[in-house]
Write a structure and sequence with these properties.
heterodimer; A: 16 helices; globular; B: mainly alpha; two-stranded antiparallel sheet; 2 strands
Chain lengths: ~300, ~325
C-alpha cells in the first residue's frame, strides 16, 4: 500500500483516434464537458453544507432570520465564535472529546495491527474460517448490543466514565483488522523468514520487522479511528450521564435541549467541530483515499 | 457417523499446533473482545428479552410477554415501517448517486482530485454536525433550500415540520455520505481493462451499450457490497432523528417528529430502554433487529446470484 502513486490512466488510443468521426464530434466541445458540468454541480451541492454553516455562523441574528437569506454575511459577526464557546460550556465538551478520541485512537493503533498480524502472517488451522467471523461482524448492527452492553457496563460501575467507549477499542475493530490484514498480506514472506532464521521470535518479527513497514497502514487506522471517535454520538449518549463528562457531540445537543441556543451560535460551534476534521482530511487526503478503497479490488 | 472423520481432521500436526500457539497471543484481544462485547451481549439480550427488567433490581421472568406486546404495539410497527421506508429510499438512491459520481470522475477530468475531495469530505464530518446544518438549510422561515425552490417557483416545503417530508429530509442528508462509496466505485471502474472498451468501440457499441454490457457487470460485486452495507447501516438510522427531534423545537420525550414520522426502529428501541426503562422490551426489539439484519443480508446475497457478475480471475 505504501501510499501508491495516483493512478491516472492515459486516454485510450482507440477512442482518441476514431476513424470516422460522427457529425457531433466536429463540435468544439471537449468530450469531458458534460461530465465536468455534472461534477461541478454535484461538487457545489456537496460543499453547500460547509458554506452555509460558515455563512450562518458569521451572521448576526437579525440577518440570519431574514428572508430571502443573504448569500454571504453582510455584517460578519466574528464574535459569534467567542460567544458560542463562552455561552456553551465548549471547553469542557472539547476536553472530553479530545480525551475520548485520544483513548480510542491509541487503543485502535495498538490492537488492530496485532490482531491483523495473527490473521495474516501466521498460518494456523481454521484461520480463514475465524477471519470470516471477523468479517461477518462488520455487518452486525451495533444497536443490537446496546441494551445488554449498558447493563453489563452498569454492573461493572463503568457508567458515567469513559471506559465503555475507550476500552472496547483495545480489542480491535473488524474493519480496521481487515484493513491491516490486507496490508500485511501484501508484504513478502521472506522478510519474516530471514528474521526468524536470525533467531527472532514472532513478536519481535512483528515489532521490529513488520511494524516499521506498516506505518502507512497504521496511519490509516489512526486517522479513521480518530474521525470516527470525534463524531461518535450513540455510545456517549448511552454511557455518559453527567453533563461535565459530555463530549461535543451530545454536549451540544443536550445544551440545545436545555437552553436556547440561537442558530448562528450553533453554526459557529459546529464550524469549530468540523474544522479539525477538514484540516485532518486536507493534510492526510491520500491516507483517507487509501483506506476507503482498500477493499475495492477484492470487492 | 459424521463425528469420526471430523475428529480425525482436527488432529493437528506438530507444526499446526505450534503455529496456533504462536498466533493465539496476537488474536487473543479480538477473541476476548468479541466474546465480551458481542457474543455475550447478544446471548444476554436474548435472556433479557424474556424478562421484565427496569435496569434496576432483578429481572423477572416474562415468558413471551415482550414479543406478544410487540405484535400489538402500534409504535413498534410504525417504527419498523418508518425504518423500511427510509432504508428502501436511501440505499438504492445512494447506490445510484455513488455510481453517477464515480462515472463522471472516471471521464479523464484533469482536476478529478478536487471533486474527489469535495464528494468525500461530507462523509467524514460528524453526522450530528451535518444534521445541525440541515436544520438551518431546511428551515421553513429562512432556509436556503426553500429559497432556491422559490426561485424556480416551486412551493416551499416544510421539510422538518411536515410528516410527509421529514423522512425524505433524512434520505437527502444520507446522500451526503455517497462520497465514500463513490470512491470505491471509481477504483472499481479504473480496474476495468481498457481493452474491453476498445474492442467494444471497434464493434460499434455506443456509450450506453458499453455501460450496460461492460461497466455495470464488472462493478456488480461492489454494488452488492454497497447494498448490503448500506442496508445494515440504514436500519440502524438514529442520530439524525435524535438530533432533529431532541432539540427545543421537538415534541418532548414522547414524540419523535411530527406524527412520529422520525420514530425509527433504533430510536424507539433507545426510548424503551433508556427513557421508559423497559429493558426487557428493548432487548426483544434488539433481537428482532438482529434477526431482521441477518435475514436482509442473506436475502440480498441470495438475490445477488441473479445479477452479480463474478470474473473467473
Amino acid at each position: 500500500m505504501a501510499v501508491a502513486p495516483e493512478i491516472r490512466e492515459a486516454p485510450s488510443l482507440a477512442i482518441a483516434r476514431q476513424p470516422t468521426p460522427r457529425p457531433w464530434r466536429r463540435m468544439r466541445f471537449p468530450k469531458t464537458l458534460g461530465a465536468r458540468i455534472g461534477l461541478i454541480v454535484a461538487g457545489l451541492l456537496f460543499m453547500l453544507p460547509f458554506y452555509w454553516m460558515a455563512n450562518s455562523a458569521l451572521k448576526n441574528l437579525q440577518e440570519l432570520s431574514a428572508f430571502p437569506p443573504t448569500l454571504y454575511p453582510h455584517a460578519p459577526a466574528f464574535d459569534n465564535f467567542v460567544r458560542a464557546v463562552t455561552y456553551i460550556p465548549f471547553g469542557t465538551f472539547l476536553l472530553n472529546s479530545v480525551i475520548l478520541t485520544t483513548g480510542v485512537t491509541i487503543g485502535s493503533a495498538i490492537s488492530n495491527p496485532l490482531i491483523a498480524y495473527g490473521f495474516s502472517r501466521i498460518k494456523w488451522p481454521g484461520r480463514d474460517f475465524v477471519f470470516g467471523i471477523v468479517l461477518a461482524s462488520i455487518f452486525l448492527p451495533f444497536p443490537v448490543l446496546i441494551v445488554a452492553l449498558f447493563d453489563i457496563f452498569a454492573k461493572l460501575h463503568w457508567i458515567d466514565t469513559f471506559l465503555p467507549i475507550i476500552v472496547p477499542a483495545f480489542f480491535g475493530n473488524p474493519f480496521f483488522i481487515f484493513l491491516m490484514r490486507q496490508f500485511f498480506l501484501g508484504l513478502p514472506n521472506e522478510i519474516s523468514e530471514q528474521a526468524r532464521i536470525d533467531g527472532a521470535n514472532e513478536f519481535q518479527v512483528f515489532l521490529h520487522v513488520i511494524m516499521p513497514l506498516a506505518k502507512p497502514a497504521v496511519a490509516v487506522v489512526i486517522i479513521f479511528a480518530a474521525v470516527q471517535a470525534w463524531g461518535e454520538f450513540l455510545a456517549p449518549l448511552l454511557y455518559l450521564q453527567d453533563e461535565s463528562k459530555y463530549p461535543l457531540s451530545i454536549g451540544l445537543q443536550f445544551y440545545r435541549q436545555e437552553h436556547d441556543v440561537s442558530y448562528n451560535l450553533l453554526m459557529a460551534a459546529s464550524t469549530l467541530i468540523v474544522l479539525p476534521v477538514v484540516a485532518l482530511f486536507l493534510a492526510f487526503q491520500r491516507f483517507f483515499i487509501e483506506g476507503i478503497t482498500v477493499g475495492a479490488v477484492k470487492g | 457417523m459424521i463425528a469420526a472423520p471430523r475428529l480425525r481432521r482436527f488432529r493437528l500436526s506438530h507444526e499446526d499446533r505450534r503455529n496456533l500457539r504462536t498466533a493465539l497471543p496476537f488474536i487473543a484481544p479480538w477473541i476476548i473482545g468479541f466474546l465480551a462485547f458481542t457474543v455475550y451481549p447478544i446471548v444476554y439480550s436474548l435472556y433479557l428479552s424474556f424478562t421484565h427488567y427496569s435496569g434496576f433490581g432483578d429481572a423477572t421472568g416474562a415468558g413471551f410477554d415482550n414479543y406478544r406486546y410487540m405484535m400489538k404495539d402500534p409504535l413498534f410497527w410504525q417504527s419498523l415501517s418508518n425504518t423500511f421506508y427510509y432504508t428502501a429510499l436511501a440505499v438504492p438512491i445512494g447506490v445510484v448517486v455513488a455510481i453517477a459520481l464515480a462515472l463522471m470522475m472516471n471521464q479523464n477530468v484533469r482536476e478529478v482530485a478536487i471533486y474527489r475531495a469535495a464528494f468525500y469530505l461530507p462523509s467524514i464530518i460528524p453526522l450530528f454536525a451535518l444534521t445541525f446544518i440541515f436544520i438551518v438549510l431546511l428551515n421553513p422561515g429562512f432556509g436556503f433550500v426553500d429559497y432556491v425552490l422559490g426561485l424556480f417557483h416551486i412551493p416551499a416545503v416544510n421539510w422538518l415540520g411536515d410528516a410527509r417530508w421529514t423522512r425524505i429530509s433524512v434520505v437527502l442528508l444520507a446522500q451526503l455520505g455517497a462520497g465514500g462509496p463513490a470512491l470505491i466505485f471509481l477504483a472499481g471502474l479504473r480496474a476495468v481493462p481498457s481493452e474491453l472498451y476498445e474492442s467494444a468501440v471497434l464493434d460499434g457499441a455506443g456509450p450506453l451499450r458499453r455501460f450496460y454490457k461492460i461497466t455495470l457487470p464488472l462493478i456488480t460485486p461492489v454494488i452488492l457490497f454497497d447494498l448490503i452495507y448500506g442496508t445494515i447501516l440504514g436500519i440502524q438510522i438514529f442520530t439524525p432523528a435524535y438530533v432533529l427531534t431532541g432539540g427545543t423545537s421537538g415534541g418532548g420525550a414522547y414524540t419523535a417528529g411530527p406524527e412520529n414520522s422520525l420514530l425509527f426502529y433504533v430510536y424507539y428501541l433507545y426510548k424503551n430502554a433508556f427513557q421508559y426503562s423497559d429493558m426487557g422490551y428493548a432487548s426483544a426489539m434488539a433481537w428482532v433487529l438482529f434477526v431482521i439484519s441477518v435475514v436482509l443480508a442473506v436475502a440480498i446475497m441470495r438475490w445477488s446470484k441473479y445479477w452479480v457478475h463474478y470474473e473467473a480471475s
